[in-house]
Please model this.
Amino acid sequence: IDEWNISKEFIGIILLPIIGNAAEHYTAIKVAMQNKMDLSLGVAAGSSCQMALLVTPFTVMVGWWFDVEMTLNFHAFQLAVLLFSVFLVTTILNNGQSNWLEGYVLLVTYFVVSLIYFFEGPGGSHSLATLD
Model:
C-alpha cells in the first residue's frame, strides 16, 4: 500500500468490489443487453446487498479472530458517500425505467468517488477521517 501510494480505503471501497463481483457485473451486463432489465437490476442489487450484509461483517469478525483491529465505525466522509449513493440509486430506480443519462450519472458518480479515494493517499495524515 505504501509502495504504490494507494490508500486502504481505495482498495477496500473501489478495487475489491469491482474484482470480487466481476461475475455478477458480467451477468448483469449480459442480461441487460438481452433487454431483461428486471433480472439485471436484481443481480446488481443482490450483489450489493450480499457485500453489505454478509461479506463486510464476516470480514470484520475474521479480523477480530486474527487480532486485527477492524470496525464498522465509518467516518463522516464514508457515511456521506454511503447516504448519497443510496439516495442516488433509490431516486434513479424508483420509477422503474432507465435511460442512458441515468446510467451515465451513476458511472460519473462512481468515477468521482473513485478519484477522491485514489488521491486520498495512504496513512493517517492524508485520511479523510480526520478533517483538521
Observations:
- The helical segments are 8-20, 22-33, 37-65, 76-93, 100-118.
- The mean pLDDT is 82.
